Amino acid sequence: MRPELPALPGLISAAEVAATAASVAALQEPDGALPWAQGQHTDVWNHVEAAMALLVGGEVEAAHRAYDWCLETQRPDGSWPMTFLGGRVDDPVAETNMSAYLAVGVWHHWLVRRDESFVRRTWPAVRAALDFVVGLQVPFGGIAWARDAEGRVDDSALLAGSSSIYQALRAGLAIAALLEEPQPDWALACGRLGHALRRHRDLFLDKSAYSMDWYYPVLGGAVRGPDARALLASRWHDFVVPGLGIRCVDTNPWVTGAETCELALALDAVGDQDRARTLVHEMQHLRGEDGSYWTGYVYPDQAIWPEEHTTYTSAAVLLAVDALSRTTPGSDIFRGSTLPDDVPVTGLQCGCVRSGARGQVS
After folding, report:
1. What is the pLDDT of residues 254-264, one digit of tens each?
2. Rounded to whole angstroms, how far apart are CA atoms 269 and 40?
3. Which GO terms describe its molecular function (predicted)?
4. What percent of the chain has pLDDT over 70?
């Protein structure tokens, strides 16, 4: 039986959601990989995001093939290469954020399908991936962004990437609780990371020109409540272009669909559904005739750029529509009410939280 598809009446219909999911599935390669666009590379983060979107968009078989690809391409240390191209490793660097994201996809699958056999089958890969990620936590609590092919670690911590890892660690802890396999090291790492994301964002590598660094601490769940609303208000006028979406970079007159929908998801997570829905509505100018989405739009030139339909943009649209419509149980994945909201904040080097304190997410 085909699952109910999300829709936002007056904005995007269930049939249009199905067309968008089908456009993503049409780009799936024979081995199950979901590349950025036709002929482009695949990375595991965007691949998992696309698999989540396929699941809510009714392309269940394609989603399962995508998760099989994750299991088949994971390396023994729990990581994945940065990128694949044409079925081969394109860049061997192991990026922590990308490796962590499988946990979010598996928890999302559980929320949607309640298939314990799937969770158990993917659990060894989730466990290995998060063990790899936690092993690269740096002293102030952030997560080092990558390890190169020679084993050298770049201990610079990226704010957006670490924010996504925070969500992944909470998803991993939820899976561990479901399977009754506690992972105390993940909980400790999650507590330290959450504290850094709330109180020490200045210690992360400065990528503040990018909109992702602005909203990702909210999207990943580390910042909630009044602090989240204040953070989103702080740079609203730097990035939001009324009627079109949001800029990817604050210096460039280029709005991008994926970032616009991610900001909508962050707004939804803090209860601002009206502005979230407006953003999803305003970025529909990027929709193609077959339901796929262009990456972005240079508004002074009134030009689509680059001229490519990207799976990650379509995926962000579908996840935002599901979140705002509350259609599937997976629509909660970014609001996070099914994830652990109390992790230990201990072992800090900053001295601003006493050892053993608990860190509330909201």
Report:
1. 999 999 999 99
2. 32
3. transferase activity
4. 96
Mean pLDDT of the chain: 95
Contact between 27 and 34 under an 8 Å Cβ cutoff? The reply is yes
What six digits make up the tokens of 73?
């391409």
Location of structure tokens 């529909």: 284
Ramachandran area for residue 24 (φ above 0: left; ψ -120 to 50: alpha; else beta)? alpha
> 78: Cβ–Cβ under 8 A, 6 or more apart, which residues?
99, 125, 127, 128, 129, 130, 131, 132, 133
What are the structural domains, with CATH classification, of the chain?
14-355 (1.50.10.10)
For 11, phi and psi rounded to 5 degrees?
A: -125, -55
Q: Which residue has the tokens 């729990």?
A: 78
Tell me: the pLDDT tens digits for 281-316?
Answer: 999 999 999 999 999 999 999 999 999 999 999 999
Residue carrying structure tokens 């996070």: 336
This prediction's pTM: 0.96
List of residues 6+ apart from 170 with CB closer than 8 A: 190, 221, 336, 339, 340, 343, 361
